[in-house]
Amino acid sequence: GQAHIWEQRLGILDECLHTLNQTQRKFVYLEPIFGRGALPKEQGRFRGVDKEFREIMSEISSNPRLVVFSQRKDLSNILKAMLDQLGRCQKALNELLE
């Protein structure tokens, strides 16, 4: 019934918030580096994540109710894809620094 629906919603919310937190940490670390034009080959990848990240954060800012946040069907997949792309950017940076 209702309890099951809320359990699912809260589970999705927990997963999204965890992934958003990871994404935010990577973004804050990488943004100053890529913002200055480092690693030109990865700029397109980072710019795509940057655009999506800012849109999501703007959406959250305009409607901070977490229940609404958790009801966006594709959010979990988008956040996971962004985290993956940031991981690729970080890997390229690490390879450059080695």
Automatic annotation (TrEMBL):
InterPro entries: DHC, Dynein_2_N, Dynein_heavy_linker. This is Dynein heavy chain linker domain-containing protein. Residues 3-98 form the Dynein heavy chain linker domain. GO terms for cellular component: dynein complex. Pfam families: DHC_N2 (PF08393). One of its GO terms (molecular function) is dynein light intermediate chain binding. GO terms for biological process: microtubule-based movement.
